[in-house]
Amino acid sequence: xxxxxxxxxxxxxxxxxxxxxxxxxxxxxxxxxxxxxxxxxxxxxxxxxxxxxxxxxxxxxxxxxxxxxxxxxxxxxxxxxxxxxxxxxxxxxxxxxxxxxxxxxxxxxxxxxxxxxxxxxxxxxxxxxxxxxxxxxxxxxxxxxxxxxxxxxxxxxxxxxxxxxxxxxxxxxxxxxx
Length: 178
Description:
Layout: H1 20-24, E1 33-35, E2 47-49, H2 56-71, E3 74-80, E4 90-93, E5 96-103, E6 109-114, E7 118-124, H3 131-141, H4 150-157, H5 166-177
Parallel strand pairs: 2-7, 3-5
Antiparallel strand pairs: 1-2, 3-6, 4-5, 6-7
């Protein structure tokens, strides 16, 4: 028992966040990812990625390079067509051809294929996300027992700008009509 009277096994673990040093070193085109460290791969997501833009030709090569160091050669990348600017059918990364597939799925993920049929699903953190929110959603995405889809994690954790209230719009309209 602890001083609080709660058994140690019932004390919630502190949130698992990425180290701040990672974000200090991030520049445009840098891949930020976390892969699930268990061998089971039973969660919905195998990791998370925080691109700095929606430019495929600028963002995908460093992601592929980073993943290849841990997973071996990457054969294909599947992207949401509505979330990226101009998806080519293939890119040459580190002297290897990587095929790009685009689907109109809107699911906030990128699918990575190694070999013929080994797939990894990475949550895509929107490029304009604030660092603290990005670290939070990335840590949640890589939990071994995560059963939450990428879109749900992002909606729950990333604050969105508040829309103007109805009163504010009407007040502004009345002021402009006077």
